[in-house]
Specification:
Layout (H helix, E strand, L loop, with lengths): L1 H18 L29 H4 L2 H4 L6 H30 L1 H4 L3 H8 L3
Length: 113
């Protein structure tokens, strides 16, 4: 059984190794291939790409419709946070032995802006 698995492993390794050993490149010879410039000269991972380019020009013409719902519901979420959520945290802080308010909850509450 061990000899069979060793031979099978060697065959799999040989198959993988020979698959990467070809030098054939797609696209023909270098002399006939024309240069096509990239769409943008900036790399996607470049952090300064947004400074030197216009992101609105590269975005879709019709943006996702739920994005507008997010823009309009953001003030409602802030009103909920300031009107309901934060007062509940302050109330729980006063009665920590009843509500289970911990030092970690206090740290998270203190980090809010």
């Amino acid at each position: 059984m061990k000899a069979t698995s060793t031979i099978l492993g060697i065959m799999m390794l040989a198959t993988v190794a020979t698959g990467c050993s070809t030098t054939h490149q797609q696209g023909g010879s270098v002399e006939t291939k024309e240069y096509t410039p990239p769409t943008s000269i900036y790399n996607i991972l470049d952090s300064t790409a947004l400074v030197y380019s216009d992101p609105a020009a590269g975005s879709a013409v019709n943006d996702h419709p739920l994005r507008w719902l997010g823009f309009f519901s953001n003030p409602i979420g802030h009103a909920f946070d300031y009107g309901i959520n934060r007062p509940i945290y302050k109330l729980a802080n006063g009665f920590s032995y009843l509500s289970g308010y911990t030092a970690e909850d206090n740290m998270v509450d203190a980090q809010r802006r």
